[in-house]
Amino acid sequence: MPRVGRVVLPNYPHHVVQRGHNRQVVFAAEEDYQRYVRDLRELKDAFGIKIYAYCLMTNHVHLLVSPGNSVAGLGQLMKALAARATRYRNRLEGRTGTLWEGRYKSSVVQTETYLLACCRYIELNPVRACMVADAADYPWSSYNARIGLVPDSDWLDIDACFSILGDTTLKRRENYKAFVKQSVSSDETKIIREALQRGQLTGTARFIEEVERIAGVRIERRGQGRPRLDGGI
Fold first, then answer.
1. Which of 50-59, 72-81, 90-99 has the lowest mean pLDDT?
2. Cα distances (angstroms) measured from residue 98 to each of 104, 220, 227
3. Which of 18, 61, 174, 226 is the most buried (most CB within 10 A)?
4. CA 204 to chain centre
5. What ranges in the chain are assigned the alpha helix state H?
6. Under 8 Å between Cβ of 136 and 147
7. DSSP secondary-structure letter at 40?
8. How confident is the model at residue 221 (pLDDT cuts 50, 70, 90)?
9. For the chain, which residues make up each domain, given as ranges?
10. How far is Cα 215 from Cα 230, in angstroms, rounded to an integer?
């Protein structure tokens, strides 16, 4: 069974990060963030992509997305998002050249075990970076939309795993808020971060075996745990 580089699978969530070229600033003003979110909303349907979470940082973007039956949709989405942002900034600043790194990082995520944990990881980026004290204080992530604090937020997709958070929309929002606020283990953060950086899978050993069978490739293993879903749920 051959080894593999990047794994992209249809109908599985993928944790994706794209950084500015040489870590340069890609969002310098409020309009930059607004345009990217508008493009994300528009292009998700064009390429058949589900969006579960996002966070726009100063020099990079985190997304939790799922391509449909065509895995090409993920690459097409990232290419189109990058091209639109680059054209806008180049036109605004009277410059040429690339805005983003040429290759984004991605990790296939085990839905039932890690999708919620990855949403939390993504939306807590500004808190870990000491930019805000609470995820709700940061306007450029999916968190406030997910907990119902902003209007017109129904464009975010809801995986079936969100149903474990409650029987009603209100209860799911309240329990998701509690889930994000609970203490996150360093092991969980390390697993998610390293899986993304190394292009590995975010999931259990059984999940890795499942993906190996689907993709017909051998995937590097590493020690992994299971995220906590207690503390208010």
1. 90-99
2. 14, 32, 37
3. 61
4. 19
5. 30-46, 72-93, 111-123, 125-128, 143-146, 169-181, 186-198, 205-215
6. yes
7. H
8. low
9. 14-206
10. 33
Identify whether the C-beta of residue 4 lies closer than 8 Å to the C-beta of residue 218.
yes
pLDDT tens-digit profile of 144-175? 999 999 887 889 999 999 989 999 999 999 99
14-206 under CATH 3.40.50.850, yes or no: no
Residue 65: its H or E element: strand 60-67
The pLDDT > 70 percentage for the chain reads 91
Amino acid at 86: T
Q: Reduced to 3 DSSP states, what percent helix, strand and coil does the chain have, rounded to the nearest 5?
A: 45, 15, 40
The whole-angstrom separation of Cα 49 and Cα 42 is 10
- pTM of model > 0.85: yes
Q: How far apart are CA 126 and CA 210, in angstroms?
A: 33
